[in-house]
Structure of beta-N-acetylhexosaminidase:
Amino acid sequence: MVNKLILLIAIMLPFISRAQQANIIPQPVSIKMATGSFVIDNNTTLKVKTGNKELQAAAVFFTSYIKNISGKILPVNGAKSKAIELKIAKTDGIGQEGYLLQVTPASIVITANSKAGIVYGMQSLFQTLPAVRTNFELQVPCMNIEDYPRFKWRGMHLDVSRHFFAPELIKEYIDLMSSYKMNTFHWHLVDDQGWRIEIKKYPKLTEVGAWRVDKLDKVWGDRPQAKAGETATYGGFYTQDQIRDIIAYAAQRNITIVPEIEMPGHVASAIASYPELCCTQQSQLPLTGGNYTNMSSNYCAGNDQVFTFLQDVLTEVINLFPSKYIHIGGDEVDKTPWKKCDRCQARIKAEGLKNEEELQSYFIKRMEKFLISKNRKMIGWDEILEGGLAPEATVMSWRGEAGGIQAAKMDHDVVMTPGSPCYFDHYQAGPEGEPMAIGGMNTLKRVYDYEPIPAELNEQQARYVLGAQANLWTEYVTTAEHVEYMILPRMLALAEVVWSPKSAKDWMGFNERLQSHFRAFDQKGLHYSKGDYKVTIKPFSQNGKLMATMSTEALNSDIYYTTNGSEPTKQSTKYEGPVQINASMILKAVTVKDGKVMGVKPSQQSFVVHKANGRDVTYASKMSRYYMADGPNSLTDGIRGTLAVGKYWHGFNGTDLLANIDLGSEQSIYRISLGCLQNYRDWIFMPQYVKFEVSSDGKSYTEVATVNNTIPVNEQAATIKDFVAVFPEQKAKFIRVTAKILDACPKGHSGDGKPAWLFADEIVIQ
Ligand code: ACM
Ligand code: ZN
C-alpha cells in the first residue's frame, strides 16, 4: 500500500511541478501554486472601478499587452462570465509597491495599495504568458502570490552621452526594467562626449554639444582629437517633447526617471558649446571620443555666470522631470584647471575655503541649495563627500562601498552601485568571445551574490541604504543590441537582489527560472549572454603546499584539465577536487556541459616552482593598494600574473619597483627573472630596464645584470615580458631587483604626461 502510494506520487510529481512552475523573476515574497489555470478567452473581461484615473491607465497597459501577444481585444467591464480584476484597496503588509495576485480557474484578482503594485502584479502575470504574438491559449497557472520589494531604489543607469540611443531604445530599456520590477531609471544625459537634452535657453548645448567628429574605429581612450576644419556629425539629442513622452511611458510602468546633469567636471560638451563657462574661456575643437587631453572639461567654479547657467538648465530639467531626485554627477573632477584659474582662486579666498576639494564642495552645496529651493533632492556620485558633504545630499557609492558606508554613518541616504558587481559595462563572461568591454568582470553570479547592505552598518545605519543600481556606461556600447546584451541577464539577477527577500536567495533556483526567460529573449530577438563558461582557477597554500581549486558558474557541468600545456578536452583529467601544484606547469581547464566543451578558449594559469617560493619580499616603495594581488609576497608565490590586469600583479603608480628578497640561507643561483605586463589601454607600461643584484650579507650588493626593455611603448596588444638575467652560477642569500618605471605615459596616449603604471610578477630565482 505504502509502496503504491509512493509510486503514484513519484509519477505525478514531475507532471505537477512542471505544470505549476510560474518562473517569476524576481522571486516573489510568497508564491503558492495550485492546480488548474485561468484561461484568458472570449468569455473574459477586465474589471476596474470606473472613475479612478490610475486604474484606467493600468487597464490600458493591460489590454494593450494582451492585444500585442494574442490579438485579443479584452473588453473592460464587459458582461462576461470571467473577470480579471485590478483593485486598489488598503492592504496591510505589502507597502506602496506590493501586490496580491490570486488566480483561480474562475477569476484573477490583483490587489494593491497603489497603481505601482497593480503594475507589478500585472508584470508577474505577464511572465506566465507567451512572450510574443502567438495563437497559444493564454493560460495563467492558478496561484496565490503576496509580494513586495526589499528596497525602494531599484535602479538601472544608462549613459547616452558616450553614444546616443534613440527614444525607441530608451523605451525598450524601460520596458525591460519594468518587466523585472526595477523602478528607477538613471538617465546619464550629460558627459564630455555629448550633451543630450534640449535646453531652450541655451540652444548651442545641442546644436554644438550633442555632436562630435566620428572616430569609431579606435579604442575609446586613444581616439585622436579632432583637427581644425573637421565637422562634427555623430551624435544626437532628445527634444523636450521626446523627453516628456518618455517620462509618461515610464510612469505608466512605475518607473521614475532620475536625470543626471553632470557638474562640475565631465562637461567638455557644454564647454564646446559655451566656452565662457570654463576657466580659460577659450573655444575648443569639436569633441571626438575618450581622448580629451588639452580640452577643458570643468566649469569654472569662480564664475557666477556658471551658476546662473546651471540654475537655468536645472529649472528646465525640473519643469520636465517629476522625479524627487535630480542627479548632479560630481565624479572625477580633475582640479588642475581650478588651481591655475584666478577666478577660482579668488573664490577660494573669498569663501574661506582650504583647497580645491572644498571648492568642489562649495559648488555642489550651492547647487543643492538651489534644488532644495525647488523642492527637489540632490543625489551625486560619492566624490561629493570630498571637501564636505552637502547637508541633505544622497550619495551614490560607485568607488566600492566605502563612500556609501561613510555617508550612511553620517545619516545620509545612499544608493549602492559599486563597480564590482554593479558596473554592467564590464565583461560578464569570457572575456574571449564577448564584445570589447571596458575591462573587469562582473559575472551573473557575482551580481546575484551581491548584498547591498554592508556588514559595517548597524541596523539603524542600514536603513539609509535606499537600494542598489547597475550602471551601463557606453564607451564601447554603440548599438541597441549591445545595450541588451550588457544588461541581459545581469539585470534579472540584480532585480532579485533588490526586490526579493534576502532569505529567498537561491542561485540554482534562479537559474532554473532563468531558462524560461532565455526562451522569451530568443522569441523576442533580444540579445543576451548565455552564461560564463570560464573556469576560475584559484591557487591557495595549504601546509606549505601550493594547491589550486577550479570552479565554473555553469550549472550541471564538469571541468576537465591538463597540466602539460595541451588543450583540454573531455578525455582530459576530470576535476574532482583541489590539485597540488608540485612542479612548474601551465594548468589549462574547460567547462564541459551536455557532452560539449563550452566557451571559446580554455582558462589557464601558469605556476613556477623556484628557489624564492614563499620567501618574504620587502619593498622600498609602496605598491598601489588597488593592485596588491594576493598580498605582499605575491612576487614569490609561484602564481604567475595573467594577461588580465587584476590577476596576480603588483601595481606601482609613478614609482619604481625596488624589491628585496631574503632566501633564508645562502643558495647557489644562476638565473633571475622578473615578469612584467604592458597594457597600453590601462596605462600600464614595461619598465625602462630591470637591474638584478645579489648579496651574501644584505649590505653590499653586486650587480649581475641590467636588462633593457625591448617592447615599444606604443605596443597596444597586452603583453607579458620576462626580463631575464643568466650569469655564472654563484652563491647569494639576498636578491635585489629594481625595475625602472616609464617616466610618464607617452605622447599621443590618453594619459600623456601623467604617471605610468608598472605591473610586476613574478621574481623567479633558479
Ligand atoms: C563614474 O563611474 N565615473 C561614476
Ligand atoms: Zn575657474
In short: The domain at 153-524 is CATH 3.20.20.80 (TIM Barrel). The mean pLDDT is 93. The two ends are 74 Å apart (CA to CA). Residues 279, 300-302, 338, 341, 343-344 surround zinc ion (ligand 2) (CB under 6 Å).
